[in-house]
Structures
1.
Amino acid sequence: MKTKVLVVGGGGREHAIVEALLRDGAAVYSAMKNMNPGIARAALGVKLLNETDVPKVTEFALSNGIELAVIGPEAPLEAGLADELIRKGIGCVGPTQAAARLETSKRFSRRLLKKHGVPGNVEFGTFQDLDSAKVFVDDFPGELVVKPEGLTGGKGVKVEGEHLMGKEEVLRYVKEVLDHKIGGAGVVLEERLVGEEFTLQGFCDGKNVRGMPLVQDHKRAYEGDVGPNTGGMGSYTDADHLLPFVRQHDREAAEDIMQRTIAAMRENGSPYRGVLYGQFMLTKDGPKVIEFNARFGDPEAMNVLSLLPEGLLDVCQGVADGRLSSNVPFLPKATVCKYVVPAGYGTDPKAGRPVVVDENAIAKAGARLYYAAVDEKNGTIYTTSSRSLGVVGVADTIEEAEAVCEAGLTHIQGDVFVRHDIGKRELVRKRVEHMRQVRG
Ligand code: AMP
Ligand code: GLY
């Protein structure tokens, strides 16, 4: 009998999860808010719904005899979907509401690290009112980052020296966050870190963490790292599962931080089962935590899962049952993923525009295609206001993977754009050079 697995979410990340589960022979079901054509085609059953509607998702799972659920986005985690599915006897890759606070509450995660003495934390303060924030800002010796306390879809963070010029602008944004309750109530102010960012994702079974290949995402909308922040325009991994600017001992330090965080969660009474996403800044003093997410990254999932010809189902079962096996067989290859996004994405995305995708030609070019936040109606694919399609190249080197990705991208047409610089030699070199300067 095939294992029945429910995948929640309809983006590129979830399409990659679905494809990996299919390779392991799972019977896949999908609950999503948009008609992702890649997922719809692969799934035995699809339910279009609001992904935070816990009763509806649970009912769909129960009526299909689902044994295991993989929850893609953060919103259903915050809504308590994992708690409810677990109560109904369904195994979950995705933490409970309490454990998901690692992502959903920046105050919780900073305080947890501090309380348990986990390395890699930053100087920070958490505030509910402007007056106490002002005292902190006035006394703080360096540049600050302003973060709304809760979820903002990755768009609420502003950095002094980048988005905010000087303490006055910092305080003005603090006031805006508090007045308009952006991301709930409260604001976190923290030390601005200088370095290069990387992502370490780990499978966690409550006790153990199994790290995946390191990934670097590109948040800025336009080539050359300019423009507004986005959910991520594309990402790459290297064949050694490090990155060209990250050394083995940096990776080990990041793994140690994740391992201690999981131990802290357990001690805290909220064991963490799911994928833990660590966003790190590699500084001159080693990796520091920028934030945690309680799920796979998007696009990062498309990179790492393209390296897993088999084994995701087994790992997911290990996560849900609290017994991860020792290794996850990621291929020693490089990947480059670029997102095709609607014209205007980042400021004023054009939804409802048709996109023409030649799947056969993309496959012939050797690239992988993952559908994201598009809608299929009567055989035509339309953009929504989010990212449309992910294209991934897999090869021995980043440079070759980038070329494969680009060959795939030529077979997609529409009112869309791509950051072509991602994974190109010039940009990767710039990262390496920047890190060399930071290390001094
Ligand atoms: P977050 O939503 O916490 O991932 O923040 C979004 C982006 O803001 C990150 O990807 C970083 O580029 C930047 N950022 C967040 N925290 C810091 C920090 N403490 N120092 C420097 N940059 C930061
Ligand atoms: N790529 C960033 C994220 O998934 O949050």
Note: Residues 307 and 331 are 5 Å apart (CA to CA).
2.
Amino acid sequence: MVKTRIAPSPTGYPHVGTAYIGIFSYVWARKNGGRFIVRIEDTDQNRYVEGAEEGILRALKWLGLDYDEGPDVGGPNGPYRQSERLELYRRHAQELLDKGLAYRAFETPEELAAIREELQRKGLGYGYDGRARKIPRAEAEARAAAGEPHVIRLKTPESGSVMVHDELRGAIEFSSREIPDVVLLKSDGYPTYHLAVVVDDHLMEVTDVIRGEDWLVSTPIQKLLYQAFGWDEPKWYHLPLLRAPGGAKLSKRTGHTSIDYYREEGFLPEALVNYLSTMGFSMPDEREIFSLEEMIAAFSWDRVSLGGPVFDEEKLRWMNGKYVREVLNLEEVCDRLKPFLQSAGLEWGTDEYLCQVVTVMRPRFETLKEFVEKARYFFDENYPFAPKAERELRKGAETLRELKELLAGLPDFAPERTEEAITAFAAARDLKLRKVMQPLRAAITGSLATPGMYELLEILGKERVMKRLERAFAHLRELEGDQ
Ligand code: GLU
């Protein structure tokens, strides 16, 4: 059975890179009827951030990347949090010591720094020269038993090379000279990433490791560990890293990388997943809008390209707009907007009213938050007047007063009726329609960017429009009082 996993470290906010790798891992597991696991790699005490794990799991759920095994859902090979598996790592480090494939090293941090410096002077890049290998086993055991602080290191080959087979790139050769005797168990008894990741991937029966290209260099070390334990290695797939427009690695400095940011800004999880799926993958018919289910159906690794995919927030915004207009149905869009209206303190009254507003606004917003900004006046009688709108109000005050009388006389605001009346009103005064519309628009919305006037009048309704006109005149009087 194919088993994939993501192994995020809880070191900060949930990162779009985690979602990106998560999507490919999820899709590959689902494609094969396999299982997708989430494991929390929290053994680096210095980088641990309280609450980060919850944030990551919440983000995965929001995106719809359901995992079959994980810290909060359990599973047959738990626990799924590395800090709860320390005994396992110790036991496995001990196993390698017993096999003579690992050794204890007692250098102090100062000694290690001196060794590193010496190696650098000699032009050797790696940080440790394996000198503690020479300590006789009995002596090392005695020192350890006496409580001397130490680490356990892997004995890596001194010559030759390690061949890694990456499913996307083929064979890659790493010279053994470039592979240091990495630490497996730190002096505080915590494992390093290499030991923990290999022990866990093996015990959790992970068959396919899908991760970012930045982990490629650690693969030969992990391969050596699999060999040392006598285990079969998984298949390795290293996906290209996300780039910012311009080509730099996507990071805090080059773009927004937090999944929470996209949720809070009113991006739809479906759109974010769709967009991240296009990072390296393309559908056989090249269409850009597709669901996770469709990706699973069409997925194959030959459709994944290794050129650095560019994550462009503007493009994502465009895609989100497509989802708002074309993919989700009207009711769904309305439902998704409700929490955003609520957190802006706006009340929408009935669902029918909200959906009427959304219908006319739909071509005019891309994110849910943008809707709230642009459509505020539909839900707020105390809408503010933009400076440009105030200018129109002033210029058109006389016309607006006459227009108000006309509107007051109409039995209702059916679009055909208001259109006929307003057109005739403008013609009788030899005014361009715009000269009538702009002050009216300014008065009843405080803005000049609105949907079509007749729809607007119909949705707001006569009673509300008349009150808004009163309010606009009061506002004008205040403005004139200020002069
Ligand atoms: N804990 C590593 C990370 O934060 C996992 C790397 C891997 O997938 O092996 O990405």
Note: The chain has three domains: 1-71+240-327, 86-239, 387-482.
3.
Amino acid sequence: MSKSLISIHDFSKEEILHILSVAAGMEKNKSQKILEGKVVACLFFEPSTRTRLSFETAANRLGARVIGFSDIKNTSITKGETLKDTIKMVSNYVDLIVMRHPLEGAARYASEVCDIPVVNAGDGANQHPSQTLLDLYTILETQGRLDNVTINMVGDLKYGRTVHSLLQAMSHFDPKFIFTAPQELRMPEEYRTFLSEMNIPFTETASLQEHLDDCDILYMTRVQQERFSDPMEYEKVKNVYRLEASMLSGVRDNMKILHPLPRVDEIAADVDDTKYAYFYKQAENGMYVRMAIISYLLGLK
Ligand code: CP
């Protein structure tokens, strides 16, 4: 079976650092035709802007060709074809599959039914490991280090796959965490237990203002309507936090605001013009990191 990237735990600390180093090289040289003759499939069973387009651009910049779909309405899945059959067919056509799916575990299952590398581009509320690697790249770029960074995660910590993956990846680097969320969207117990077992300190609060001045990275997230089975529950928490420029007067000079995007109302537009906003560059970094991930999984130096 080929090496896949399904969970951030699939990469060791050394592999993570290797990807970040290769990504820095990709940023310096944005077009390297090292994948000529290769084909990458991007199979998106759930909407995406950044992840799909940056993976496709990454493959194109490396000289590979791209096939795939961004809407299952035009595929035989609508006729009842199973995930297994879809993946087995596509894996006969291409060298690597990038896949987003609403069901937790779907990407792992796909990697088990085919012989080519699979990259999990998000599976339900579970994992989004390529986002995590670009988040790490951005933390390193903005802080000059990964060790001993304090990250304040804000918003939907219950369903947010990006915060779950990032938390696990940062466990290699002696972090401190602040979890800012209402009770309904609290960081799940399994992740809090994981941190306790690793002796990694964390604080929880429901107040956005309380710990704004204590962190190096303010990691904002969207409350994800699509993860709620009860619309009333979503209505209760959808506007729980809104970061505005006036709230940033006491923050650390080095503090940067990250967001996996898309945002809705949780970051006001006036924050974009502050020196703390870094989410557009973070999204750009996704392309370099995904160039590194694709070339690594295809065994290219
Ligand atoms: N960050 C992220 O996954 O964005 P998209 O949903 O647009 O891919």
Note: The first helix runs from residue 13 to 28.
